[in-house]
Write a structure and sequence with these properties.
Blueprint (H helix, E strand, L loop, with lengths): L13 E4 L36 H7 L5 E6 L4 H7 L4 E9 L4 E12 L2 E5 L3 E6 L2 H15 L9 E7 L5 E7 L8 H8 L3 H14 L3 E6 L6 H11 L4 E6 L11 H12 L4 E6 L3 H4 L7 H11 L2 H6 L1 E7 L16 E6 L3 E2 H10 L9 E2 L1 H6 L16
Length: 386
């Protein structure tokens, strides 16, 4: 039960006072009734840092109202079971086939002016003082935080909804996508470990730049990106833009999206992955001029200083075919060619996997794992989220 005031010193929170404004820009204190609430303007069931719902506004009126928010993942089912009397509003999703339930949003009221909202990835406390708002959040976090699952890295899949706004969903990768130093060298050959350490050193030392991974399908570009997200998961956030969504690079909302992400994650560096991006990188023409210009602007120059984005592009063509401006020294952080493994190297990797490869001049990484021959048409493609 949430009762005793405690402080969790290790929690990282963002605290601030909620602006005393009503919907449509009218100040609460300017209202003749002391409170303006437009239920059509906001979801009356859920809360957020910027738009607390009607019961919270009703409880505080024009008086002091402070919020404190924290990202994470919590056991909402246990929180509801142990605080039934304090449960004020909730949204629950049922799965009739498996008889499972999932709490989407829950709001607890622990006192007249003491509210806590808990969603899938964020909790927010509302109180009369910043200290009390922080206490609500840190105490809930200490009691109901889920232990971290053993997993590899993760990435945020950027998507554009039908209304045009830009959002993202987090995709978690399995633990086996992080390779040991020995396994890494078996996958990528002699000297690959030294190159990898040099590359992650550059990602840690710089805030923006462009990296190009070149190689035929199946040579391990995507496999390496999965490994990279796991190695840098404590210091970097990775964002994946599918080929079909590449148009978001030229959207005005794109800048606002990154502004919000930097505000939420001020201690992380951002890496944007553009997979199979040949069309966006080719010498500028009528069909890709805007996308090439967007990549140039966000990888170098004044906009790059503001956005602070590392960009990694994978291509199946030769780098000689892409726009020369992208290869300019100072903009290009890294150009890596992922090649096929010669037979001795491929045979060593296959032996580690408990397999034996037939004699052939060389193998792609995908062919070694798939136990297929070297016929080009039978080589499976490794997708980023597969």
């Amino acid at each position: 039960m949430l009762n005793a005031p405690e402080t969790l010193e290790t929690a990282t929170t963002q605290c601030g006072r909620v602006p005393e404004t009503a919907p449509h820009g009218q100040r609460i204190s300017d209202s003749p009734f002391g409170l303006v609430c437009d239920l059509a303007h906001t979801n009356p069931f859920s809360l957020s840092y910027a738009t607390p719902n009607a019961p919270v506004l009703a409880a505080f009126g024009g008086d002091r109202l402070h919020a404190c928010t924290l990202e994470g993942s919590w056991d909402l089912g246990r929180a509801v079971a142990e605080n039934t009397d304090a449960l004020f509003r909730s949204i629950r999703r049922l799965n009739s086939k498996k008889a499972l339930e999932q709490w989407e949003d829950v709001t607890f009221q622990f006192g007249h002016r003491s509210f806590l909202f808990a969603g899938k990835t964020q909790i927010t406390g509302f109180a009369s003082t910043p200290m009390e708002a922080e206490r609500l959040v840190t105490e809930f976090n200490k009691t109901y935080l889920k232990p971290p699952a053993h997993s590899g890295g993760d990435f945020c899949l950027i998507e554009q909804n039908p209304f045009g706004s830009i959002g993202c969903q987090t995709v978690t990768l399995p633990l086996n996508t992080i390779l040991s130093a020995e396994a890494f060298c078996l996958h990528y050959g002699s000297g690959s470990g030294e190159w990898h350490q040099d590359f992650i050193g550059r990602l840690r030392a710089t805030n923006h730049g462009l990296s190009i991974f070149e190689g035929r399908p199946g040579t391990g570009k995507t496999f390496y990106l999965r490994h990279l997200t796991g190695v840098l998961k404590e210091s970097h956030r990775f964002y994946f833009i599918p080929t079909s969504t590449m148009g978001v690079l030229t959207k005005p909302d794109f800048i606002g999206f990154w502004t919000d992400e930097h505000r939420i994650h001020p201690d992380r560096k951002f890496v944007v992955i553009l997979e199979d991006s040949e069309a966006a990188l080719m010498t500028r023409g009528a069909d890709n001029r805007e996308q090439v210009s967007a990549i140039l602007n966000i990888s170098d120059g004044m906009l790059a200083d503001f956005l602070s984005l590392q960009i990694i592009c994978t291509i199946n063509c030769s780098a000689a075919d892409i726009d020369p401006a992208l290869l300019r020294p100072g903009r290009l952080l890294c150009h890596r060619v992922f090649g096929r493994l010669d037979y001795p190297q491929a045979a060593r990797l296959a032996e580690r996997l408990g397999r034996k490869l037939p004699q052939a001049p060389d193998y792609s990484l995908a062919e070694v794992f798939a136990e297929h021959g070297t016929v080009e048409t039978s080589r499976p493609r490794i997708g980023f989220a597969a």
